[in-house]
Automatic annotation (TrEMBL), chain A:
It comes from Penicillium argentinense. GO terms for cellular component: mitochondrial small ribosomal subunit. It comes from the Eukaryota. SUPFAM superfamilies: Ribosomal protein S16 (SSF54565). GO terms for biological process: mitochondrial translation. Pfam families: Ribosomal_S16. This is Ribosomal protein S16. Belongs to the bacterial ribosomal protein bS16 family. Keywords: Ribonucleoprotein, Ribosomal protein. One of its GO terms (molecular function) is structural constituent of ribosome. The keyword Ribosomal protein applies. PANTHER family: 30S RIBOSOMAL PROTEIN S16, SMALL RIBOSOMAL SUBUNIT PROTEIN BS16M. The lineage of its organism: Eukaryota, Fungi, Dikarya, Ascomycota, Pezizomycotina.
TrEMBL record, chain B:
One of its GO terms (molecular function) is rRNA binding. Keywords: Mitochondrion, Ribonucleoprotein, Ribosomal protein, RNA-binding, rRNA-binding. Residues 186-201, 211-232, 299-318 have a biased composition (Basic and acidic residues). One of its GO terms (biological process) is ribosomal small subunit biogenesis. Residues 123-186 form the RNA-binding S4 domain. Belongs to the universal ribosomal protein uS4 family. Component of the mitochondrial ribosome (mitoribosome), a dedicated translation machinery responsible for the synthesis of mitochondrial genome-encoded proteins, including at least some of the essential transmembrane subunits of the mitochondrial respiratory chain. The mitoribosomes are attached to the mitochondrial inner membrane and translation products are cotranslationally integrated into the membrane. GO terms for cellular component: mitochondrial small ribosomal subunit. It is found in: Mitochondrion. This is Small ribosomal subunit protein uS4m. It comes from Penicillium argentinense. It comes from the Eukaryota. SMART domains: S4.
TrEMBL record, chain C:
This is Ribosomal protein S35, mitochondrial. One of its GO terms (cellular component) is mitochondrial small ribosomal subunit. Coiled coil: none annotated. Residues 296-328, 344-377 are annotated as: Disordered. Residues 296-307 have a biased composition (Basic and acidic residues). It comes from the Eukaryota. PANTHER family: 37S RIBOSOMAL PROTEIN S35, MITOCHONDRIAL (PTHR28158), SMALL RIBOSOMAL SUBUNIT PROTEIN MS45 (PTHR28158:SF1). GO terms for biological process: mitochondrial translation. InterPro entries: Ribosomal_mS45. GO terms for molecular function: structural constituent of ribosome. Pfam families: Bot1p.
Amino acid sequence: MVLRIRLARFGNKHQPFYNIVVAQARPSTHCAGHGRSGYYRESDETGVDAMKENQLNWTPLTRLSRSARGAKPLEVIGTYNPIPTARTDVPDANVAPRSYKDITLDKARAKYWLGVGAQASDPVWKLLNLARLVEPKPKTYNKA
Amino acid sequence: MRNRASNSLSKGKIRQSWSKYNLYNLQRFRSPATANRTFFQQKWTAKALSRAYHGEQVREGQWKRMFSKRIRSVVPMDTTDLAADDGSQVSAGRGSGLQKQGDKGRPSRIIPYTQMAFAPLERRLDVAIFRALFASSTRQARQFVIHGAVTVNGQKMRHPSYLLNPGDLFQVDPDRVMFATGAPKTKFERREGRQLKQKDGESEEAEGEAAEAKPKEDTEKKPEAEKEDSRDTLKALMAQAKTIMSTDKDVLPAKRKQELRGFQKAVRRVLSRSETSTVLTDNLESQFSELTLLLNAKRAEKKPQKQTKEKPGKEKSETAAVAEETEAASDKLSEAFQAAAEGEEVDASELTDEEFEVLKRALTQMRDNPIDHSKPYATPWRPRDYMSAFAFIPRYLEVNQNICAAVYLRHPVARPGSAEVPTPFGESISTPAYGWYLKRRW
Amino acid sequence: MAPRIQSRSVSTLLPYLTSSSTSKSSSIPSLCSSSQSSRQFSVSAAQQTKLRRQMFEWLATQGSGLKHHVPGETNYLKWADGTQNNRPFPNNPNFVSESILSEELRNEVYVRVIEKKKSPRAVSVELGIDMNRIAAVVRLVELERRQREKGKSLALPYARAVHEMVPTTPLAPAGERQTYHEPINDLPVHPATGAQIFYPVPESRSFTRVDAGRVFSGAPALEKDVSDKITHPSDLAENLIQRPGAIEWVGKGDNARQVLQPADVRIPHPQLVQLARDRAAHPEERRTVAYRHAERLERQEKAEKQRLQRSQQRRAMNEETVKPQGSRFSFRIKDAVVTKESVGKDGRAPWAPGRRYGVPTNDRKRGTVKIPTRVEI
């Protein structure tokens, strides 16, 4: 059972907007047959344990056993808007303004999830790096 | 939006437009008679008439959703009045205030609330552009927005129905504004423009060929072209001076006319002489500044010159030879001016201040309002006919015409005696129209 | 009528000569007559032709003056009594074409605010221009300068023409008093005052603006010892300028509202009332009055500046901009809060961070606004 911090796409065509979510990466094998009703209450799973600490134990069992791409995640910890916004309030006219992209992030939760072993996907890793939560990933290859 | 908004004379509806048909309709418009008509009928006509003007490009349902029965108003307060009492006098006595003998107070003017019935439409971007005098009709303003010539707070806005918020800055492409508000081209100007376009196309082709064949020639060609261009502007300057003379002919006495003629000659000489000098290869901007500098310099020199006429000019020419290139060029020009002014008419060759002003104006106009047949409007630019009859800028907008930008300061308000929403209709129409949109709520 | 600029004073600033337009006017009648003569061969409906003929007749006779303007004068339609004034619509006496700021006045505002570093509030009182307008003028002049630097094309002849057609407020020559452009102390009419209320008051009691505001907002009357302390409604202004949050609230839940304050507090320049009071109380001590006014103004500006700083700090606290090297973009990272309170019991609270799950978006429904409602600067 692996927890992943990844992006989940929202928005419309040509207007992407992402939630930064914590979700199950792989269906877990041992809780697949537990049926649909009831809530997952085992405490050996670190993620779920932490959830209980935070009183967020609304996650039904089905959520843990299945993690479809668009399904409701364990938690939404932020958003990322990849469409840059042009800046117009530049005091210096000579320097070309850098347009900006918006990120919202609950840093405390992100830190927590990373601490309990959640793995960030590459795009999220970059965002977390910008927020200075993780070191940049070492490049495995050099671009040609 | 169907295009049904015509300025037809038979219907006689008033539109948000500067058309002369609209002006005529506006002029002959009379409030409809109310006698023998039911209240519903009165409201219906009032609504129909005012909607033909206010937001005819907006669907009825859309407008109904925008309509608000709340009307903003302000009362200008006088600080000395406020300081004079704490309000207890107004409620003193039996509640209606103690009245002193002979003190009637200020005549209170009523606030024309119902004139504000269509205030929500003034928030629309297309209407605001029309109100800021950037377009000759709301439909045109709408087209500007859709065609991407309008920015709001620096970002392109393509929705004419965008509702401006207080503090929003909108800007229209100045060329479009000049086109919208300028006089249209005549047949001849249009033809000139076509020819210019053709020539451009040909020269581009030729240049392309030249670039393929000999890249060296291309580099040589450009300064030549520039030279010719700047020569043209100087020639145009000359022509301008001529027109000034011709317009002021009946005003000016004969002597001054002679002086002006002297100037004209001077310019001609400069033109013939400075072909080889570096001035002409410079760009237009520096040329212009040099010319204005010259004018200023001449004005300053005027008094000393009266005493020692010929000497300073010569001295200057000598020193100029040693000085830098550009300076030398400008001095050459000045020399030419002086020579022309002094050589031809020795005794009264100096121009008066007034004429200097006129010349300066001519120069500035030549720079800022040039003859350019590639533009879609008649050049030099002049306002289109009948524009002045519609030219007003409401107070809720602050407009900078130079850059064609405006700020929507606040929502329009009513105040005692006046309403800020520009509407051609009196209260006899706006009140029933407001009542129509209140539905059974009044 | 608002004072107007003479055309000569405009000329030095804006390059646009009107001589060309006047010289062209001679060609107009011939144009009209030619169109009339061509009508005789037209086969269109008779009535239409008549209307058109009448229109061109009017344009050639009474309307001919409207074709071109006289610089420095308005040129609107004539009223029924044959007079021309600054009301452009003959049927609407309530709409007046009001004056705009002249180029000089606009530059003066910019110089005073940016170069002399005066506060917009002070400049507003000096020149009689609304504070919002001052801010807008500064913004526009700044933009204009930037565009001039960049060498972008400007619509100078157009600007000149508009300033000739519309009444303008000129800048007073140095040493003279500036004529006010507009009333600067506009009191917005509060919706609560729309209702007529019958409120009996004993004749012996003085019922002031403060009490009236409380009645309109449905608040209980002030205690006697509190109301005795207020000698004049403008006494409240000083306190509320320092702490705008100190305004009392009445009602509960959705019905909660702030108590309506007297006009002395709600106008844009409340310090002017105190100045007028001071002047009336001490007519001969002009210097001390001016000194006290300056002090008050300074206090007020300080408080406003502090408030602005605090709000900026608060924004900066949970917002950070990162400019990574080698990237074309900068990233604005804002703090989000994910707790039980912020996301709700089922994690679907509308105010939770991120887009919502299991809830259809309403963005295509009828009646919802589908275009941007604001553009951030």
